[in-house]
């Protein structure tokens, strides 16, 4: 079965073809949700933020002229939208304790038949959330979502050398944090 | 930087394909000779594998949620914006066709021909005047 190209779907979507836009959403859903979840944690807000990414993309359909790969373009919107949401979340300081716990994003979105593996994932999420956004974004894009260093650099608009050095430092910091947060 | 730390850095950079050929050769040789480095490599691979598992599970209703939330008026504006060139072209075509019809019936496209005045006779003026 022939896959319709991004360019073709984009052209149709710009002409008002809602099915074409839905096909693009389906094609890039995993990538966008992965980036947003990685930056915000498995929070109930994360899907709302991921949805907002596609709405912003829809509004900017006329502006995107293929100056980058569509995946890169969407990745940039996802990172920026997630960072904005993370900033807003920081400002929500004076919540009752019960609401703070609901918003801290530590709820597991999936379960594993291997409890040890599930604990490791939980610990990794907590450690990831403690990284600065600069480090977290390279870890999420490169190591969680599997983009290459070059693709990660394009999405973050950084030199590849900067991405590589942030990755190295972020991983070492994560290993240290992991040792601190893992249950004994 | 001591030798161990240097090799650790090479190992870490190798996982992201950031080594020069000379560095890659040096690392490969060290991996053959240093059991601690091989164990370190296994640990990093397991660690990075666990990070990949943080990718969220798919959500079956996500596309529908997005499509429901799309701003409909913006969609119509996008469609109208795309139709402007077509509307202008159609208007120009209609003008050309109309002018062609006037020329065919009246032999010219001057003001009287366009307004149909060149077809009026004295009797028509008399009827209109006494209406």
Top keywords for this entry?
heterodimer, A: mainly alpha, 9 helices, 0% strand, B: 131 residues, mainly alpha, 7 helices
Characterize the structure shown.
The complex is a heterodimer of chains A (184) and B (131). Chain A is mainly α. Chain A contains nine helices and no strands. The radius of gyration of chain A is 18 Å and the shape is globular. By secondary structure, chain B is mainly alpha-helical. Chain B contains seven helices and no strands. In chain B, helix 1 (3-14) packs across helix 2 (21-33) and helix 1 (3-14) runs parallel beside helix 3. The longest helix of chain B has 35 residues, at 72-106. The termini of chain B are far apart. The mean pLDDT of chain B is 83.
> What is the share of helical residues of chain A?
over 70%
What is the number of E strands of chain B?
Answer: 0
CA distance, first residue to last residue of chain A: 51 Å
Quaternary form = heterodimer
Content-based structural category of chain A: mainly alpha
Shape summary of chain B: rod-shaped
Shape of chain A: globular
Calculate Rg of chain B over CA atoms. Answer: 40 Å
In helices, the fraction of residues of chain B equals over 70%
Order of SSEs of chain A? HHHHHHHHH
Taken in chain order, the helices and strands of chain B follow as HHHHHHH
The span between the termini of chain B is 109 Å
> Low-confidence segments of chain A, ≥5 residues, pLDDT <50?
94-112
How does the major sheet of chain A shape up? none
Identify the biggest protein-protein contact and residues per side.
A-B, 49 and 34 residues
Summarize this, please?
Chain A is mostly helical and 184 residues long. Chain A is built from nine helices and no strands.
Topology (elements, then pairings):
The complex is a heterodimer of chains A (184) and B (131).
Chain A lengths: L5 H9 L3 H23 L3 H16 L10 H21 L6 H7 L11 H15 L3 H12 L4 H8 L3 H22 L3
Chain B lengths: L2 H12 L6 H13 L1 H18 L9 H8 L2 H35 L4 H5 L6 H8 L2
Helix pairs in contact in B: 1-2, 1-3
């Amino acid at each position: 079965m022939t896959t319709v190209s991004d360019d073709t779907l984009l052209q149709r979507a710009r002409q008002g073809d809602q099915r074409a836009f839905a096909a693009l959403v389906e094609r890039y859903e995993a990538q966008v949700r992965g980036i947003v979840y990685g930056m915000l944690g498995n929070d109930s807000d994360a899907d709302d933020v991921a949805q907002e990414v596609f709405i912003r993309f829809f509004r900017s359909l006329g502006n995107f002229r293929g100056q980058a790969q569509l995946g890169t373009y969407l990745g940039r919107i996802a990172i920026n939208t997630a960072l904005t949401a993370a900033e807003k979340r920081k400002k929500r300081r004076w919540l009752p304790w019960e609401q703070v716990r609901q918003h801290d994003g530590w709820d597991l979105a999936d379960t594993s038949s291997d409890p040890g593996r599930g604990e490791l994932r939980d610990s990794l999420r907590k450690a990831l959330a403690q990284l600065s956004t600069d480090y977290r974004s390279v870890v999420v894009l490169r190591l969680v979502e599997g983009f290459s260093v070059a693709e990660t650099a394009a999405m973050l608009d950084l030199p590849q050398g900067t991405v590589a050095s942030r990755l190295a430092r972020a991983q070492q910091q994560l290993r240290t944090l992991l040792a601190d947060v893992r249950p004994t | 930087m001591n030798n161990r730390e240097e090799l650790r850095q090479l190992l870490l950079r190798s996982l992201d394909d950031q080594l020069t050929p000379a560095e890659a050769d040096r690392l490969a040789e060290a991996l053959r000779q240093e059991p601690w480095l091989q164990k370190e490599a296994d640990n990093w691979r397991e660690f990075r594998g666990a990070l990949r598992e943080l990718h969220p599970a798919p959500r079956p209703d996500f596309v529908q949620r997005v499509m429901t939330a799309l701003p409909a008026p913006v969609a119509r504006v996008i469609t109208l914006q795309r139709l402007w060139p077509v509307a202008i072209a159609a208007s120009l075509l209609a003008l050309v066709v109309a002018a062609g019809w006037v020329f065919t019936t009246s032999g010219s496209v001057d003001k009287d021909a366009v307004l149909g005045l060149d077809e009026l006779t004295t009797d028509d003026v008399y009827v209109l005047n006494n209406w």
